[in-house]
Every structure is written in structure tokens, then in C-alpha cells.
Design goal:
The chain has six helices and six strands, in the order H-E-H-E-E-H-E-H-E-H-E-H. It has two domains: 48 residues; 185 residues, 3-Layer(aba) Sandwich (Rossmann fold), CATH 3.40.50.300. It has 238 residues and is an alpha/beta fold. The chain starts with a helix and ends with a helix. Bound molecules: guanosine-5'-triphosphate (GTP) and magnesium ion. Guanosine-5'-triphosphate binds next to helix 2.
């Protein structure tokens, strides 16, 4: 009798042991499959092709016309796109997507007000093109602030070798500085050509013309906007 009980209990022990080993093997197998799935997931993400993506940074003092330009660029980029006028000051940032052939350009506009400029340095990483927008009707005080702001930006090593397109905006105003004058006022000739390719382009987003039949205010853009766009596409992909 005693012998039977002990035989039964060792049998039970044997089965419990087998069950434990089986459960452990099943657990290891499941874990391995799970890790493999996670690995495959990473592989899929790493396979996503971002070679046709370009990151463009749009900076400039408040009121330079950054939002106005992008609203119109969006309107001219894809037929049927619309935008809201008048532009409001940008508190924080806005991202606009432009498409040209196989390329997608994400344009990051960061507001230019005093309290927002301190955050510009958070956005410098991986920039393919810097758009620096200037209100060409600015007085000398504002222009020298634009100069020191641009120099501070270019002092950041993350901006090394990033091409720069300076946009001399508000060319519709009779007192606006022309691109050559903006080049001088911003001391752009002092920027080493080995470090940055620099170009200056004229732009205006006002005044609104009479709309041709079939167009409305929200789909209108000034012809200079399309020229600026082309320049952005060329410089960000060169
Ligand atoms: N005359 C004239 N005014 C313009 C032009 N572009 C923009 N403006 C005006 O300038 C003002 C500021 O324009 P925004 O586009 O908001 O300027 P911003 O650079 O985005 O300003 P923040 O977002 O505050 O940094 C608005 O009243 C616009 O209507 C232009 O080409 N000519
Ligand atoms: Mg803005």
C-alpha cells in the first residue's frame, strides 16, 4: 500500500515535471516568435524610403511674410488647394508640404516674434535648405536685428553646409530694398562660399490683383511665389 502511494506520487511528479518542461519550451518558442515579429517590424520601418523627402526651414523676423508666402505656395502647388487670408502671426510653428515630381518638401515655418525665436534652435537638425525671409521695407534697426539673428543661426554647427535662400519680400512696396540691396544690408558677402551656397530672390504676396474669371481669393497667388517655389525645389535637391 505504502509502496503504491509512493509510486503514484512519483508518477504525478513525473507528469508535473513534463508539463513544466513543455510549458517552458512553449513559452520560449512564443517569445522567440514575438521577438522575431518585432525585428521584422523594425526592418519594415527601416525599409521606408525617405530619399525623396527634403526638410526646409523657413525663418525670419515677425511680419516678414512667411505665412503669406506659404499660404500662396500651397495654393499654387496643387490645383484646388486653398488657404485662409489674412495670415495671423505664427505662435509656435507650422508645417507645409509641397510636392514636385518625386520629391516632397516639408517646409517648417517657425514664428519670428521675440518670444518664439528662442525656440528656433530646436528645429535646426537635418535641414536641407534654410529659407531666410526678410521684410524688404524694414528700417535699419530691424535689418540689423535680422543680420544678428542670421549670424547667430549660422554659428550653429548643425547649419554647416546648409544652402541659404534669402527671400526679399514685399517688393510691391515702393520703398522695398531690391535683392542686391538686401544682400548688402544683410552682409551676405561675408558668409564663406565654402560653407554656404547663398542666393537672394525677390518676392511679393501683395497686392491682390483683380481675379481672373473662375479664380477666387483663396486660390490666388502672385507669380513671384511660383518662382520662389522653383528655386526652393532646385536648391533643396542639389
Ligand atoms: N505689402 C506687402 N505686405 C505683405 C506681403 N507679404 C505679407 N505681407 C503682410 O505682412 C504681414 C505679416 O505677414 P505674415 O505672413 O503673417 O508674416 P510672418 O513672417 O508669418 O510673421 P510671424 O508668423 O509673426 O513670424 C501681414 O499683414 C501680411 O499681409 C507682401 O509681399 N507685401
Ligand atoms: Mg507666420
Amino acid at each position: 500500500m505504502v509502496r503504491n502511494v509512493s509510486r503514484n506520487s512519483s508518477k504525478t511528479l513525473f507528469y508535473v515535471g513534463c508539463a513544466c518542461v513543455g510549458a517552458y519550451v512553449a513559452y520560449r518558442y512564443w517569445k522567440k516568435r514575438q521577438l522575431k515579429t518585432i525585428d521584422e517590424g523594425f526592418e519594415e520601418v527601416s525599409k521606408i524610403d525617405d530619399t525623396n523627402e527634403r526638410r526646409v526651414l523657413l525663418l525670419g523676423l515677425e511680419g516678414a511674410g512667411k505665412t503669406s508666402l506659404m499660404n500662396q505656395a500651397i495654393a499654387s502647388n496643387v490645383e484646388g488647394n486653398s488657404y485662409v487670408v489674412p495670415p495671423a502671426p505664427t505662435h509656435g510653428f507650422a508645417v507645409y508640404r509641397l510636392v514636385n515630381g518625386p520629391y516632397t518638401f516639408s517646409v517648417w515655418e517657425i514664428g519670428g516674434a521675440d518670444d518664439t525665436r528662442q525656440y528656433w534652435s530646436n528645429f535646426l537638425q537635418d535641414t536641407d535648405l534654410l529659407l531666410f525671409m526678410v521684410d524688404a521695407t524694414s528700417d535699419s534697426h530691424k535689418l540689423s536685428l535680422a543680420v544678428s539673428t542670421l549670424k547667430q543661426l549660422l554659428g550653429d554647427p548643425r547649419m554647416d553646409n546648409v544652402p541659404i535662400l534669402v527671400i526679399a519680400n514685399k517688393q510691391d512696396a515702393p520703398n522695398a530694398l531690391r535683392p542686391e540691396e538686401v544682400k548688402e544690408a544683410l552682409d551676405l558677402l561675408s558668409i564663406s562660399p565654402h560653407k554656404h551656397k547663398v542666393e537672394v530672390i525677390a518676392c511679393q504676396t501683395r497686392p491682390l490683383p483683380h481675379f481672373p474669371p473662375g479664380t477666387k481669393e483663396y486660390t490666388w497667388h502672385h507669380p513671384s511665389v511660383a518662382i520662389v517655389e522653383k528655386k526652393i525645389f532646385a536648391m533643396a535637391t542639389s
